[in-house]
Amino acid sequence: MGRPGAAALLLLVSVIAVFLLHEPIVVLTGGRGGRARREAGDLARRRAAALLGLGLATGLSGLWLAPPTARLGALVPAALGSLLLPLIFSRKQKTAVGELLVAATLASTMIPVALAGRVAPATAFAAAIVWAIVFSLGTLTVRAIIARAKRDNQPGWTTRLAPLLNAAAIAVAVILAVVSAVPAMVAVAVIPTALAALVFGLLGIHPRNLRRMGWSLVASNIAVLAALLIGLR
Predict the structure, then answer these.
(1) I need a labelling partner for 104 at 20 to 30 A (CA). Which of 86, 136, 189, 208 fits?
(2) Cα(79)–Cα(107) distance, integer angstroms
(3) From CA 44, how far away is CA 31, in angstroms rounded?
């Protein structure tokens, strides 16, 4: 959406390094089991140190080169990440709250990257909000499918909430596009994922088909990306 230079690219590398840092941390904290920690602990420790060093070096360098707005924008993923860290170390990132926080944190990482590329703040935040909504809808739908299977078809709160939120997201997107409250393509950007998630949820697919659903959501995310690029450029 902007003009990616050294600052944006350095921040992008930092985001990827921090994302990859999650796995060795999970191994070291026992999230993959005691055997994995014993057998892969040394490797995980080295990888964690390397990724942390890479993330800090590229992140600080990128912020140094970035405009002031990008430095301020970096506070958003930093704040969300600080809330996420305790959940990771206590192995609670797989709870509903944890996964929704992961979705918001991942989406927010684009804010400083976009701002470093001279994207307008309103545009950067609009795109991040769309991605946060898209990631959250997909996450809730997957949780609803798994919950339905575990509860022997006894509905939990996620099984009721996920279809309603997907349908509401589609309705709100159409309304916002019609009244021109936001650019039409930005408003409808959430529809591909919301519609796919709604269909999968209503069909009540079995968890063994989650891989297929995952690839379908990836395809819908490509449509989301295309809509944002068209609507925000």
Answers:
(1) 208
(2) 13
(3) 12
| Cα 73 from Cα 59, distance rounded (Å) | 13
Cβ–Cβ contacts within 10 Å for residue 169, how many? Answer: 21
Determine phi and psi for 93, rounding to 5 degrees: -70, -15
Q: Give the single-character DSSP code of 67.
A: -
Cα separation of the two ends of the chain:
6
- The helix (run of H) or strand (run of E) holding residue 116 is helix 110-116
129 to each of 10, 123, 134, how far by Cα in Å? Answer: 23, 10, 9
Residue-level length of the chain: 233
Q: What is the pLDDT along the chain (233 residues), one digit of tens a residue?
A: 888 899 999 999 999 999 999 899 888 888 788 888 888 889 999 999 999 999 999 999 999 999 999 999 999 999 999 998 888 888 788 888 889 999 999 999 999 999 999 999 999 999 999 999 999 998 888 888 887 777 555 556 667 788 889 999 999 999 998 988 888 888 889 999 999 888 887 777 777 778 888 888 888 889 999 999 888 87
Output the six-digit token pair for 225: 């990306």
